[in-house]
Structures are given as structure tokens and as C-alpha cells.
Recover the amino acids of this structure.
């Protein structure tokens, strides 16, 4: 009798409130539920869930009476989902309508209590990282806990005013006008072709970050950057709080450009400052002075950018420890949110490698790194990667995604991409020459290479990135993003721990201070030909 009443009740409720689902969806969509994202009407194996948060494996169902009538079917469904690791929350339709706040509170509580991810790496709310997307193989039986990493977009602009003698990036000094308009069209054609080629591997995945790198992207007019960003947005779904970084050479900044980039959607600017000492800038062949770099940063701040990175290099020709510290102090005084601090390296094939300038030796370079790191820490910039320092919540999402073995599409001459699907990790890179790239606009000839990463290579590739991070990465991310079992790295892990290079925590892959000092040796342990791998 009671059951019948329940069914009748539920049916009448459904008639009265056919929009319960829509209304709950509006709430779920508009809430930042601990940084988690809900999707509506999600196919999970043989069922369609009303709402699901794939990152936390939570399913929300509304009970409009059908569950009362089909109790047995429903029990099987719940069993199926829980076997796949999902938690099922069930509410009555009137709960969703009348007590939405309570319903949301309960969902939030469940999310808080749930281990959200194979790794605590998407520090939800911190804004530093992004939850993963489940791999699409959800229609297997039972659903497999297989996850795809977040997806970003890299856009390469291959021209500079003048090539710097230390730089081996795919950048070309300008001798004539840039074919800017043609290049913008080629980038979007490249994106179209990549979307088609990667097909289902991109389905349902949002772009968490866009990075305009170079070369010198700030040579492009704001209108071109806007065309590229708008074009990308119409081709791929973007996450709500996506980051867009534009690399800028301080010698290329014209008044008013920053407003234009901001209007185009750029919300982070990265300046290649290198040093605040004019003699060092001269020795590096830079096209700007220290005063111009400072003025450019202030111009961006005045335009309203609240997320700014400065690139500095140390161990410069004839640089002293005091000189390196003075550069860092000057950078800190400008109050950027992020500082990248790179040791100048002699890259093969560059003029500096052919005729090396007098550089500080390794010990002096190490002292500079340590002293600058302490200075940065005292000023509130925590080191989180070998060369990266950030104020709280200001880590570079784009680079974090690389280091956390995330996925990214790479468009533009020489750009690299990495895309995973349920079965493999695929790398693709574009032809390096800007002219050849333009001539191949949108055609398969724009591709310089494309390969599936061999399974035995995956541990090394994963570690090469993840162990650069001071916090390392959760063990779960290794199994989730490589598709390999933890046993695949049991031997090298033992070796690295025995040498004191990795923390003794079975749930994390985190270098010790010693491991960070001998990072190359640590990573080498994971090479497939290493005796330990
Ligand atoms: C693509 S550039 C950045 C933007 C712009 N092209 C510029 O230089 O102003 C990226 C950064 O890499 C760093 N870099 C380039 N070559 C380097 C080298 N040989 N050793 C260390 N850092 C290097 C520089 O700090 C540079 O700012
Ligand atoms: S401006 Fe930047 S990308 Fe261009 S050559 Fe110099 S360091 Fe390399």
C-alpha cells in the first residue's frame, strides 16, 4: 500500500515538475562544487546516468517513481555502477526541486569524502591543476577505472625580431614581413586537421589552457591572437576557467597592445626578461634594455593583467652570485605572480655552443640557484618545479599539465602534441620550417612525425616530466595516464629509493632533495635499457 502511494506520489510529482532535472542541472552547472564538473545524461556502460561527475566517480539520479517500480533492475544497475567504482546518490524529484540547497550540500559532502582522482594532483580550488577526464572506454563491462589526462593547446609562432645566440627554439629572425594572416589561417587549418585525425580521442574533452609560445608571439597583432583564440573556441570546448598565456619579448611591446591581447582572451603574459643588467642583456644579444623590460611589465600590469610571469636566466657570461641575486631581487620588486629561473645552457648548434662565452662553472651555478631559490622563497615564491616559482595558486597550469603527463594539441611550425586514448599515447609534431608549414596548410604534409609511444618507453617519458615537480605525482596518475600496472616500475622504484632519490611513500612518486640534485641520474633509472627498468 505504502509502495503504491509512493509510486502515485512520484508520478504526480513528475507531472507537476517535469523540469526538476533541468532545474537541478542549472544548479549543478552553476556551482563550483569543490572544483568538480558534472555532466548531464552520461552513458556509463549500458546505463545513462542523470548526472555524473567523472573525476570523482559520483552519479546522481533522480527518482521519479521508476526506481520504485523497477526495484530489481535498479539494484542491478547500482551494483554495476558501484563495481565500476562509482558512488550512486539518489534523490526524489521533489528534493531536487524544493530542497536543492540540501541536495547540493549532500553532493558536495560526498565529493569531499571521495578520493577524487588517482592522484591528489588536481588540487581542486587551488587553480593550479585540472581534474582528469575518464577514458572513453566506459562501455566496457564492468566500467574500467581508466582516465585520460587534461587536454591543453599549444600554438607556436616561429618568428623573432632577431635570433638570440643562445637559443635553439624553432624561431627565425625576421628578414622580411611576417606572413601573419596566412599563418593564422594555417594554424586553424592545422587544428581542423588534427581534430579530424584524433577524432574520438578528443570527444568530450575540454581545453584547460592555451599557450602561445615561440619565437615571439607578441609580434602578432591582438586581432590575429583573437582570430586564433576565437577559432579554437568554435572548434573545441573550453573549460570555464581556462588559462591563456602569451609569450612576450619586452622589445616588441607597443603601447595599447596589451589591452588588445586582454580583450582577445589572453589572461597571462610571460615576459622574456632574462636579466635586469644591461651588460648581460647585451652579451645575450637581446633587443631590449632592462628599463624597457621593466616598462613593459608595468604596461601589462596597468592594462589589468593579474597573472604575469618573468623569465630570467642565470649563470650568464661573467655573472657573479651577487649579479644573479640582484636580478632576482629586481624581478621580485615588480611583483609578478610567477618567475621562471633557467640556467643558461649551451645548446648544440647555437653560436654560443660554437664559441662559448666565459660562463660560471657548475658549482658557481649551483650556488646561484640555491641563493636565488632562498630569496624567492622568502618573498613568497615557492619552487614547484626545477625552474618554476610561483605565488600561492599561481602555478602555470599549462606547464603543470606537461609535467603531470597531460595531453596537448600542438599547432604551428615545429609544434609538438601528445594525445592519449583508451589504448595508447600518441605523439605528433609539425614540420619545423615556417615556409614548408605554410605551403602544407592543413594537408598531411604539415606533419613532421607521428608515433605511438612504445609501452616500454612510457615509464621513462612519464618520469622525465613528473619528477621535475617538487611534489612529484601520485602513483595513481602513473597507472591512469600510462595504462601500465604499478608493477611495471617496481624494480627501478626500488633502486631509486635505495639510493635515497625518491621519497619512501608507496602512494607518491616524489623526488627527495638528493633526487632533485641528481635528477638526470634519477630519471635514467627508468630508461627501458636501464638494468633496473
Ligand atoms: C621562447 S622563449 C620566451 C619568449 C621570447 N622569445 C623571449 O625570449 O623574450 C622562452 C624562454 O626560454 C629561455 N631560454 C631560451 N634559450 C635558453 C637557453 N639556452 N638556456 C636557458 N634558457 C633559455 C629564456 O628565458 C626564454 O625567455
Ligand atoms: S627572442 Fe626568445 S625565442 Fe626568439 S631567439 Fe630570443 S630567446 Fe629564442
Amino acid at each position: 500500500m505504502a509502495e503504491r502511494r509512493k509510486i502515485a506520489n512520484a508520478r504526480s510529482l513528475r507531472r507537476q515538475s517535469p523540469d526538476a532535472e533541468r532545474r537541478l542541472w542549472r544548479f549543478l552547472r552553476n556551482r563550483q562544487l569543490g572544483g568538480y564538473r558534472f555532466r548531464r545524461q552520461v552513458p556509463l556502460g549500458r546505463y545513462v546516468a542523470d548526472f555524473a561527475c567523472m573525476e570523482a566517480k559520483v552519479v546522481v539520479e533522480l527518482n521519479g517513481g521508476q526506481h520504485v517500480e523497477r526495484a530489481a533492475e535498479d539494484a542491478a544497475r547500482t551494483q554495476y555502477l558501484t563495481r565500476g567504482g562509482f558512488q550512486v546518490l539518489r534523490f526524489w524529484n521533489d528534493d531536487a526541486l524544493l530542497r536543492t540547497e540540501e541536495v547540493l550540500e549532500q553532493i558536495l559532502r560526498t565529493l569531499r569524502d571521495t578520493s577524487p582522482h588517482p592522484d591528489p594532483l588536481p588540487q581542486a580550488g587551488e587553480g593550479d591543476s585540472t581534474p582528469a577526464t575518464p577514458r572513453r572506454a566506459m562501455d566496457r563491462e564492468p566500467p574500467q577505472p581508466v582516465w585520460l589526462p587534461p587536454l591543453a593547446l599549444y600554438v607556436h609562432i616561429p618568428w623573432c625580431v632577431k635570433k638570440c645566440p643562445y637559443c635553439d627554439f624553432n624561431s627565425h629572425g625576421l628578414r622580411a614581413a611576417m606572413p601573419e594572416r596566412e599563418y593564422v589561417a594555417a594554424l586553424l587549418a592545422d587544428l581542423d586537421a588534427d581534430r579530424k585525425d584524433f577524432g574520438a580521442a578528443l570527444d568530450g574533452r575540454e581545453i584547460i589552457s592555451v599557450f602561445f609560445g615561440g619565437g615571439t608571439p607578441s609580434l602578432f597583432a591582438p586581432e590575429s591572437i583573437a582570430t586564433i583564440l576565437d577559432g579554437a573556441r568554435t572548434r573545441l570546448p573550453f573549460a570555464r576557467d581556462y588559462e591563456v598565456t602569451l609569450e612576450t619579448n619586452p622589445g616588441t611591446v607597443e603601447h595599447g597592445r596589451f589591452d588588445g591581447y586582454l580583450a582577445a582572451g589572453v589572461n597571462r603574459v610571460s615576459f622574456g626578461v632574462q636579466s635586469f643588467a644591461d651588460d648581460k642583456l647585451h652579451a645575450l644579444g637581446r633587443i631590449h634594455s632592462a628599463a624597457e623590460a621593466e616598462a613593459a611589465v608595468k604596461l601589462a600590469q596597468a592594462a589589468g593583467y593579474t597573472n604575469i610571469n618573468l623569465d630570467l636566466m642565470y649563470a650568464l657570461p661573467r655573472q657573479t652570485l651577487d649579479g644573479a641575486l640582484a636580478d632576482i631581487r629586481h624581478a621580485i620588486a615588480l611583483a609578478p605572480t610567477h618567475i621562471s629561473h633557467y640556467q643558461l645552457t649551451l645548446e648544440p648548434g647555437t653560436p654560443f655552443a660554437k664559441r662559448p662565452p666565459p660562463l660560471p662553472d657548475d658549482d658557481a651555478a649551483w650556488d646561484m640557484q640555491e641563493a636565488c631559490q632562498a630569496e624567492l622563497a622568502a618573498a613568497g615564491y615557492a619552487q614547484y618545479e626545477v625552474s618554476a616559482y610561483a605565488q600561492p595558486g599561481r602555478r602555470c597550469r599549462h606547464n603543470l599539465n606537461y609535467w603531470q603527463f597531460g595531453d596537448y594539441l600542438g599547432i604551428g611550425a615545429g609544434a609538438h602534441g601528445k594525445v592519449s586514448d583508451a589504448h595508447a599515447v600518441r605523439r605528433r609534431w609539425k614540420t619545423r620550417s615556417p615556409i614548408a608549414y605554410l605551403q602544407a596548410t592543413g594537408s598531411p604534409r604539415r606533419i613532421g612525425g607521428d608515433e605511438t609511444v612504445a609501452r616500454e618507453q612510457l615509464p621513462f617519458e612519464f618520469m622525465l616530466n613528473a619528477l621535475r615537480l617538487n611534489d612529484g605525482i601520485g602513483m595513481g596518475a602513473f597507472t591512469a595516464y600510462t595504462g601500465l600496472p604499478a608493477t611495471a616500475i617496481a624494480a627501478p622504484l626500488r633502486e631509486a629509493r635505495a639510493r635515497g632519490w625518491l621519497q619512501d611513500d608507496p602512494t607518491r612518486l616524489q623526488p627527495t632533495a638528493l633526487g632533485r640534485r641528481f635528477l638526470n641520474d634519477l630519471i635514467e633509472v627508468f630508461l627501458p635499457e636501464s638494468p633496473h627498468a
Residues 160, 166-167, 169, 213-214, 216, 247, 249, 272, 274, 311, 313, 342, 344-345, 347 surround S-adenosylmethionine (ligand 1) (CB under 6 Å). The radius of gyration is 26 Å. Residues 115-129, 135-146 have pLDDT under 50 and may be disordered. Residues 454-533 form a domain with the Arc Repressor Mutant, subunit A fold (CATH 1.10.10.920).
